[in-house]
Amino acid sequence: MNREYWQEHDHELGDFTLQSGAVLRSARLHYHQFGALNAPKNNLVLLPTYYGGTGASNRPWVDDPASPLGGGDYCVIIPCLFGAGESSSPSNTPPPQAGPDFPLTSIADNVTAQQALLAARFGGATPRLVMGWSMGGLQALQWAQAYPAAADSVLAVCATAKCYPHNRVFLEGVAAALTADPAFAEGRYPVPPARGLSAFATVYAGWAYSQAFFRDELYRTLGFASIEDLLQYWVEDHLSQDANDLLLQLRTWQSANLLPAAGEKARSHGPGILMPSSTDLYFTAEDATRDAASLGMECRVIESRFGHVAGGPGRLPEETRCIFAAARELLAATARA
Fold it and tell me: Which domain holds residue 234?
């Protein structure tokens, strides 16, 4: 629909100092762009990517005819997550930081890189809206908490403000399935660890949806005739991904904690909405509700039987309508000359 209007670019960050103190050499932030920044610099929207997602994976939030972002009024930037294969990642970085030697990156590192991009290429424009699903939602919340004056509003879909213990254990489980393959070879594999990637995908699929999704055979509404067909899709998708990339992003996810420190108040910020799925098994609605109160934001639960996948860009029409309605409200609330 809007495919011909999308552009892709790289922003060179140079030697980029990370939150850990390590330096990512010749760091690069890849991004997708739709539309142009206007003269007042008040039409910028950021859509950070999610775990394992490419920039193109977020495009349905713009390309959908019902989207509030696709009419040409906004300059939409999709910054790609470190470690996901488009920005600097274990799979595309040369030695001595290739593969398992790639340094740990945090949610804060990703947002710092995004700020550098906006300063260098978009005149330091303040985003009207930062909106993301899953790890994209973590980045949106980081914008609100670390740089409250630098984003007018945030929408975090199927995300919480930190990686809670049960979420962490889920991630350790899929990581263990991946690294148990002898072919993984501590991340120094000459060929992809296919068995580990297949096991990773199979275990992950059981967490991405809800119990009701499987019990009520909702996978059929997604075009899968059986659970086996769904699992095969997950396996094939993950066989195309790099194992070290998956682990790097996973560790970034686990390190997330965007809540105020004990005794501190949440920073003053523009309007924000957390939109958990009612059946998400790891970014739970219970945790999101509590986090929204801590952050001074609204919590608006998406009633869905699709678990975490309820918030995925372009996947489910009814759930997407709820997300677009929230985005439209935030854009209206932050309108400025």
Answer: 167-252
